[in-house]
Structure prediction request, 435 residues.
Amino acid sequence: MGQIGCTLIAIAVAAAVTALLYVLDSLGINWDSLVIYVSYVIAVIVGIPLLIGFARVVWDVWISLRDKNSYKRSGNRLGHFSTNYEWAKGRFRQAARRAGGRLISLGLAAKGPKGEDLTIDVAWFGSPKPRQVFVHSSGLHGVEAFAGSAIQWQWLKKGMPSLPEHSAIVLVHALNPYGMAWRRRFNENNVDLNRNFREAGDFIPEELPYWDTVNALLNPPTPPGRDRFYLRAAWLVLRYGMPSLRQAIGGGQRLNPSGLFFGGNAMEEGPSKFQDLMKERLVDAERIVAIDVHTGLGRFGTDRLLVDSAAERTEVNRTMREVFGERIEPLAKHGIAYAVRGAQQDMYFRSFPRAKIHFVSQEFGTYNPLRIVEALRAENRWHLYGKRGIRHYTKKALLEVFNPNDPKWRRSVLKRGEEVIQQACALAFGPGNAK
Ligand SMILES: [Zn+2]
Prediction:
């Protein structure tokens, strides 16, 4: 700043002080009382944040002590959450064998970050060709697998229930092992696998509302950086409304193979191998109960049980509401989720038309949807246009939004995961299962 600038500021300050003194004098306020007033103001301005800060420290200490105690009480159950794919897979396999399951590993051509093999691991208990079956699956959305994997480990450790004749329990670990290993939602070809279960010939790109605007916002073909995402996203929310936008974004797309929620051009290797296995083994199935665990949508730490809303499933949905309770929510535009084509349940409906199918996506809520989309967008840019290392901040942020490092959230996952498994087993194998 030049000398003239400094002089002008000095004159302005002097003028302001003179004016203030004149005003104080005309109001009859002297210097002593002014000092007291100013002290009060400073005390309020500094004191309130200090008090809030102190209260927060006390609160945090209390919470951590409480969590530490309940962590001890829960027998270190939070250790059920693995920190990486290899560890999760190793202990799933070991526990499945110990519990008496037969292990089927479906290998993929893609590799993990350290060049490790990637497999979808299936633990099979009971009849190899069952009439009643309960399938519990995790990790269709890669990075979301840690919650489902923890629930499966918890169940395997406790031991499997004894099964009636012609019955089976099937645990499917990491339906998208690439995504789990690389900490992303999508697979080795950037495909969202819960949009990929379609028949050959059903992969034609369809027009989508506001596609150009949504695509420009979500999928810039560059490494991650600051670009006013929240501001631009907030403007779109104001313009189109949250439900329409959520459907337009999350419903899946077949127009940009590098974009978020891409449904693929053909069935991917993992889903295809998994479908072949199920078609072969469940050929005699009369009753299929399936729970597919997801994370991300809904209120933090609370789960919803999402079911297909087609008219022909009204009766099945009624039964599921009786068994699973009020958390059953049909997939529709105005719920926490959105209608999706090519979802995993379509594979069951298509492959086993004679069986009674009860398919539930157990969805554990985490953070605000905008934060999640922002994390997905940044990670996608890093993985496709950056160096794709899994220690990058975008990978860590994605892991946090789909697998919060929060004891309360994790306890809720384990508790509700177990409850829903019990209910599902009752529905699959209980006395009322003839209806
Ligand atoms: Zn998911």
Summary: The chain has two domains: 3-73, 83-203+256-434. The beta strands are 102-111, 117-126, 132-138, 167-173, 287-296, 303-307, 328-330, 356-365. The pocket of zinc ion is lined by residues 141, 144, 294, 296 (CB under 6 Å).
